[in-house]
Amino acid sequence: MAAPTTTGPPHSPAVQDGASDGASDGAVDGAFDCALDGAFDEAPVAAMAHQIRQDVIRMAGGPEGAHAGGSLSCADLMAVLHARLLRPGDAFVLSKGHAAPALYSALVQLGRLPADELDSYAQPGSRLFGHPAHDLPGVEFATGSLGHGLGLSIGLALAELLRGGDRRVYTVLGDGELQEGSVWEAALLAGHRKLPNLVAAVDRNGLQITGGTEGCVALEPLDAKFAAFGWQVRTVDGHDLAALHEALQPSPDGPVMVIATTVKGRGVPFLERKVAGHYAKLKPALVQRALAALARAAKGEPS
Amino acid sequence: MTQTIAEVELGPDPRAAYRDTLIDLAAEDPRVICLDSDTGGLEDTFAERFPDRYINVGIAEANLMTVAAGLARRGFIPYVHTMATFATMRAAEFLKVDVVGNRLPVRVIATHGGLSAAHFGTTHFALEDLAVARALADLAVVVPGDGRQIGAATRQLHELPGPAYLRLGRSATPAPPMPQGSAPDFRLGRARTLREGTDVTIVATGAMPLLFALEAASRLAGDGIDAEVLELHTLHPLDRDGLLAGCRGRAGVVTVEEHRPQGGAGDAVAEVVSAELAVPIRRVAVRGRPGARVAGQRDALEAHGVSADAVVEAAGRLLDHTQNTDRKTR
């Protein structure tokens, strides 16, 4: 079929602005090159993840606080995606939009946002809302209402197939988010259409606002559920960068669901596995404690 | 204009009229994608002509909206198909956040509007959809009252840069008579004058309401009351100038619609008219709880406050009101 080749219809201002490329060209900016030769150099990815965690803590130390726990748990996942996997033209949708601090940090490190803008997080006049807004460079869709990202990603993936392109779509979901019914409408469709260019990852940190996911409304066996829906399911340690990098590769056999087993609040001992760490407003002393713990962890010292 | 509704010939089937235009548009514009939610009627028409551009997401209206947003983000113009009540109620937040929130050119084709599927029962009534669609603010909202205009409405909506909501009935309704010498033209965003008059103005939205309005105007004429009839097919953007011109100096305005009074066409008219003119407005709209017993579309409407009788009565009250007040204040 003849299909449009531009990123947006000529009459649509919504897709002509700076956000139209979305995350598509972000990965080539800045210090992070694409690793297309298969070799995985862990150090720069670990550095990005470390910076994400530091930035998350700084934002949690701001006047409004931040969704710290779920931003820290997906920091390694976000780093692998943004430092290594997103190629020019690929798309990224943060379905768990409350992990916006992690995304903002990644976008700063890719040169899409100025670094000092992170100080304005959730403050009057800032572009950096608690959940990503759609007019921000590198953000294709506003997210934050859970259960939207997978369907949006399917639309992007179908569009790519219709245009005969080979660009990929990556999305990160929360585990609590999987209690939204719309996720399963989308999961059913992606599996049915065997989308070869869609890679989703669940940040399986096991906690939600009221406690454990299994005590709220149980999700397990999660791998079997997605497999039954036609996905290529890969369960990995969500803090093992090399394992994540391998698991997040697309499959010609259909959409890939990476279940990344993570620790909520990862890297900050007083937030790890803590339900209350879901949303944290940290006083300066706790910010310092958290940053010190992150620094020790980055050097391989015990926390 | 003396025929009763029963004597008027049926207009085209609304879904077929729309579908024919969609297929023409798809032939002309490679950006057109047909997104189905298992509604029936597209899989053996559109899909046979354009199999690559027919995507059935299954019975999943939330996902219908999000997948459409993704496709539209990459330059396609998705036409999504479901019933009016599911488009605006079940999938409301997905329509709001993903489609309208991003001002993406998705066309929501909402069938079974109003009580047009009255025999299906209450789950299939769409009597709140226009309130939701209007409240989304950046969504063009069109309710063709004349099946002969559906093709033109579809084509004009296709040209819009942002999202659009097209509410269609389930089945053919009687075609409203044309004013002498006029063709059934359609101009998006412009109210259509079907009958000129000076005493009261009847503003009708939807096929059955338009028929009721025209019949009421005929009966009022028999009583010496000169009623203007405007068809307000576009609820957003609203024809402010047309409404003000059509209502200025009248004893009152009667709105008639296939919707609850809250948030529908009557409220849209009031938003514009009440800000500028001291003209009373009475809403003829669906009252109470239809659906206790099976009834056809027309009977269900008439039993719940929407009828030619109701329009005549509302106009009469406005004129009584006028005789008791100083017209100079108007």
TrEMBL record, chain A:
Coiled-coil residues: none
Keywords: Thiamine pyrophosphate
InterPro entries, per database record: THDP-binding, Transketolase_N
Source superkingdom: Bacteria
Alphabetical list of Pfam families matching this protein: Transketolase_N
Names of the cofactor(s): thiamine diphosphate
Domain Transketolase N-terminal span(s) in chain numbering: 63-289
UniProt keyword Ion transport present: no
CDD domains: TPP_TK
Region feature (Disordered): 1-23
Protein family membership: Belongs to the transketolase family.
Name of this protein: Transketolase
Organism: Dactylosporangium maewongense
UniProtKB/TrEMBL annotation, chain B:
Matching Pfam families: Transket_pyr, Transketolase_C
Domain Transketolase-like pyrimidine-binding per the UniProt entry, residue ranges: 12-175
SUPFAM superfamilies (UniProt xref): Thiamin diphosphate-binding fold (THDP-binding) (SSF52518), TK C-terminal domain-like (SSF52922)
Superkingdom per UniProt: Bacteria
Record-linked CDD domains: TPP_PYR_DXS_TK_like
Database matches in PANTHER family: HYPOTHETICAL TRANSKETOLASE FAMILY PROTEIN (PTHR43825:SF5), PYRUVATE DEHYDROGENASE E1 COMPONENT (PTHR43825)
Protein known as: Transketolase C-terminal domain-containing protein
Organism in which the protein naturally occurs: Dactylosporangium maewongense
